[in-house]
Design brief:
This protein is α/β, with parallel strands linked by helices. Helices cover about 60% and strands about 15% of the residues. Strands 2-1-3-4-5 form a five-stranded parallel beta sheet, with helices on both faces.
């Protein structure tokens, strides 16, 4: 399946050239934007696989748009720029840009950069999802431990008995153990404990 790309450049001739080149390489162009704000709005709506952003655009420059796209986890960004300064490269890195291409570039440079960026994005997303899942499991464990402590204090239960009670309540009420633990903790808070 062809990767879905969004192009953002304030120069229509560059957008047109990019579109033709990328179509010839087998990519699908889902949108074209003339400024950074439009690029962010289109990315939110269309969920492209990758965004090619010009650095200098009106309303919201490419780095500001890239920062938003990265923060929201919408798509990887390749920054297109006429400047090859170390400072801009560092700012691009800080914004979360995955690739950087200096104009004028050869059309042959696009495909390898896009393919590597897409592959790196998949790895990044997998790791990000792992971190989110681990964080969620840790929070669940902490809440269950706290709820066990409440049950142990209130009912004089052992740790194993408190755990079993949370388990039974979860099964009986078709809730997760985390939801039961949260209810126990909320009840404790409401009781002023």
């Amino acid at each position: 399946m062809a990767a879905r790309l969004l192009i953002a450049d304030d120069e229509s001739l560059i957008r047109m050239h990019l579109r033709e080149t990328l179509l010839a390489l087998g990519y699908l162009i889902v949108g074209e934007a003339a400024d950074g704000q439009q690029a962010v709005a289109m990315a939110r709506q269309m969920r492209p696989d990758l965004v090619l952003l010009d650095y200098k655009m009106p309303h919201l420059d490419g780095l500001e748009a890239a920062t938003i796209l990265c923060h929201e986890g919408l798509a990887p960004v390749i920054l297109l720029t006429a400047s090859a300064s170390r400072e801009l490269a560092e700012r691009a890195r800080m914004a979360g840009v995955f690739g950087y291409l200096t104009k004028p570039f050869r059309d042959a440079e696009l495909m390898p950069l896009i393919e590597v960026t897409l592959a790196r994005w998949q790895v990044y997303q997998a790791r990000r999802n792992e971190v989110i899942a681990l964080r969620d499991r840790l929070e669940t464990r902490k809440e269950i431990e706290q709820a066990k402590g409440v049950l142990m204090d209130l009912h004089g239960l052992s740790e194993a008995e408190a755990f079993r009670r949370i388990q039974q309540l979860a099964m009986r009420n078709r809730k997760t153990m985390r939801e039961v633990a949260q209810a126990i903790l909320l009840t404790r808070q409401l009781a002023g404990g």
